[in-house]
Amino acid sequence: MKNILIIGSTGQIGSELTMKLRSIYGGDHVVAGYIPGAEPKGELLESGPSALVDITNEQQIAEAVSRYKIDTIYNLAALLSAVAEKKPQLAWKIGMGGLFNVLEVAREMGCAVFTPSSIGVFGNNTPKDKTPQDTIRNPRTMYGVTKVSGELLSDYYFIRFGVDTRSVRFPGLISYVTPPGGGTTDYAVDIYYSAAKGEKFICPIASGTFMDMMYMPDALRAAIEIMEADSSKFIHRNSFNIASMSFDPEIIYHNIKKYVPDFQMEYQVDPLRQAIAESWPNSLDDTCAREEWGWKPEYDLDTMTKDMLQKLGEKFGK
Ligand code: AKB
């Protein structure tokens, strides 16, 4: 049985991944790591142990690993792309300083490590369509710089010290549970909230800007399945392209309009987010993840839209 520590358990991915892992491995086997001001609440607090684990504090990570006999760490602490552009020093401190702390603890205490990477590792010179697994990674954002460096450092720890590091490049993640904060792809979450509340949506990303996106249940499965996978088939590790759908604001807007005919959208493009979005791929080729560990998405845009609108409708009592 695994003993898992989630660093960043109350964030966009962590809040759902912690509950999913507890449903698989048992509540007592999954520790919800948190920082002051972001303590677990409700079901997350009650369904298993939690521990104060600030990723910038190596000692705190080591104490939690030792106390709960942790063998697997999910390192979910990061600033998302738009906010990282506003606070590049902090983004580096959390993204790289934090990862270094996690890898050092993992090396000394024998843990496997999952660290999400992102479509943000790619830049303007990367092939835009069906972006290959192995291609140019030259981002011009601090988020992308930390993610590329994180991929390299994680591979280094595997090659040099045998630490079992694994990762996927997440696209924009869409969920009705915990909203993201400060990402470039957040519009694809916010648009559903506006539709479900009966409000007009002000879109910060220009029409015609395609990005890869994924529904959270698929993303959670990817994070769990890669850590369960038989690594003897791995050619890659840090990090695998994964994909399920690609759209621009017009496509998602019209898909939502099928179910909410009165829904209205207007563009007010945010130059920072738009520049980041334009530097990212339109769509990724995830053949290597499919071949090396059997990755396969379950949701497409339409099945995601139906589920999002139903769940948000229940949330807002509509
Ligand atoms: C962001 O927009 O910053 C993230 C990402 C694609 O990594 N959602």
List the helices and strands and how they pair.
Layout: E1 4-7, H1 14-25, E2 30-34, H2 42-46, E3 50-52, H3 58-67, E4 72-75, H4 81-86, H5 88-109, E5 112-114, E6 117-118, H6 142-161, E7 165-166, E8 168-170, E9 172-174, H7 187-197, E10 201-203, E11 211-215, H8 216-228, E12 240-241, E13 245-247, H9 249-259, E14 265-267, H10 271-279, H11 287-293, H12 301-315
Parallel strand pairs: 1-2, 1-4, 2-3, 4-5, 5-7, 6-8, 8-12, 9-11, 10-14
Antiparallel strand pairs: 11-13
Helix pairs in contact: 1-8, 3-5, 5-6, 7-9, 7-12, 9-12
The structure holds 2-amino-3-ketobutyric acid.
Residues 80-81, 118-120, 143, 170-173, 183-185 line the site of 2-amino-3-ketobutyric acid (AKB).
* CATH homology superfamily of the largest domain: NAD(P)-binding Rossmann-like Domain
Structural class: alpha/beta
- Beta fraction: 5-15%
pLDDT < 50 runs, ≥5 residues: none
Account of the 3D structure:
The protein starts with a strand and ends with a helix. By secondary structure, the chain is an alpha/beta fold. Strands 3-2-1-4-5-7 form a six-stranded parallel sheet. The chain has helices at residues 14-25, 42-46, 58-67, 81-86, 88-109, 142-161, 187-197, 216-228, 249-259, 271-279, 287-293, 301-315, and strands at 4-7, 30-34, 50-52, 72-75, 112-114, 117-118, 165-166, 168-170, 172-174, 201-203, 211-215, 240-241, 245-247, 265-267. It folds into two domains: 4-171 and 215-241, NAD(P)-binding Rossmann-like Domain (Rossmann fold), CATH 3.40.50.720; 172-213 and 246-315, UDP-galactose 4-epimerase, domain 1, CATH 3.90.25.10. It contains twelve helices and 14 strands. Bound molecules: 2-amino-3-ketobutyric acid. Residues 80-81, 118-120, 143, 170-173, 183-185 line the site of 2-amino-3-ketobutyric acid.
